[in-house]
Amino acid sequence: MKRYSHITGWGMVVPERILTNEEITQTVDTTDEWIRTRTGVQERRIAAEDETTASLASGAALKALTMAGIKPSQVDMIIVSTSSPEHTFPSTASIVQDEIGAIKAGAFDLSAACTGFIYALDMVSHAITSGSIDIALVIGAETLSKIVNWKDRNTCILFGDGAGAFVLQALDKPGGFISSVLRSDGSGADLLTLPAGGSKLPASEQTVRDGLHYIHMQGREVFRFATRVMAKATLETVEKGGLTLDDISLIIPHQANQRIIESAAKKLKLPMDKFFVNLDKYGNTSTASIPIATCEAVEADALQPGDMIVFVGFGGGLTWGSALIQWSGPQLEVKPIRTGWYQFWAGIRSFLLKILRRIEGLLSGLGE
Ligand code: UT7
Known about the structure:
Layout: E1 4-13, E2 18-20, H1 21-24, H2 32-39, E3 43-45, H3 53-68, E4 77-81, H4 92-100, E5 106-110, H5 116-129, E6 135-143, E7 161-171, E8 176-184, E9 192-193, H6 205-209, E10 216-217, H7 219-240, E11 250-253, H8 258-268, H9 279-282, H10 289-299, E12 308-315, E13 319-326, H11 339-367
Parallel strand pairs: 4-5, 4-6, 11-12
Antiparallel strand pairs: 1-7, 2-3, 6-7, 8-13, 9-10, 12-13
Helix pairs in contact: 3-4, 7-8
The structure holds oxa(dethia)-CoA.
């Protein structure tokens, strides 16, 4: 049978705490008017102290699994795309795998900044259509508020926290993932970066004093790059899929800046209502922005089964990319599952495994 990679479940989680533009004006020299007119952002969500990239990712993943009627134990692969991982290693994906009880899944993080979710969709879709896996979770998750310098008005006004997840599944009916375009230009690596904490500049008192553990961005250059690539990448993936722009019902772009999306619309000669935009509520949640926007597009009835849609994004790296998808919608035969139970048992299982490892260590110590 020919295999197709369908999106059969989706879910999002954002922190409860809302940070308005007005509140930001209390801490840096900016105005609500400046932020609204230059970016379109009105408010963003900020993670609580006990909320992390993995906890948001797990919450979004469980919602997506519930919708797809898939048990965590059926998942073959988990990819978490993030720029604010739980740690440099182990991967956030491995922590999510444990938290949700996906006992047979492989798991890894993918680093392609805001474009990461599109890269991950491409990777799992090809693994699904080749027959290497049947069911995957692709998650975009960020707690950027923890790596933003709240004294830097060039960056702190833009970003927000949140997670979105898709379940991708092998089905024999045509549809789902059709084509993609993935690109990188590392000559622009320094335009958007978190300079310290890696092998080039290990964390030290000096790097902390210099604020090099925060996001650094040359906004104007990133803006120019984004307006150059968004329309081009959209057209490329549509043509690669054998379609024209007339066939596309909706474009779900990376939610970075209203003006960047307007510029892409103008270049493509499309009206703005072909683009789904929700960055006013969440700011730029980096790689989480496309799955979060997709969840809200479904809620808003902007997406119907059979629709041809394009995801398009850009970000640090520099990276950019796009994907053409025929939207599958919920599968009728799905029986709801109670993921709360799975999370409960996953917690107990993880606890018991840790104790077993400790006992094993003690016993082998005695035997030596
Ligand atoms: O996911 C990818 C992540 N990155 C992006 O998508 C960022 C893309 N870039 C942008 O969205 C825009 O470049 C920004 C929103 C970051 C900045 O907007 P801009 O229109 O490109 O402003 P600018 O950087 O050219 O700065 C214009 C002026 C400067 O003042 P001077 O030098 O003209 O006196 C800035 O210092 O605006 C000033 N400025 C601000 N003023 C008030 C910069 N940030 C602020 C601020 N409030 N928050």
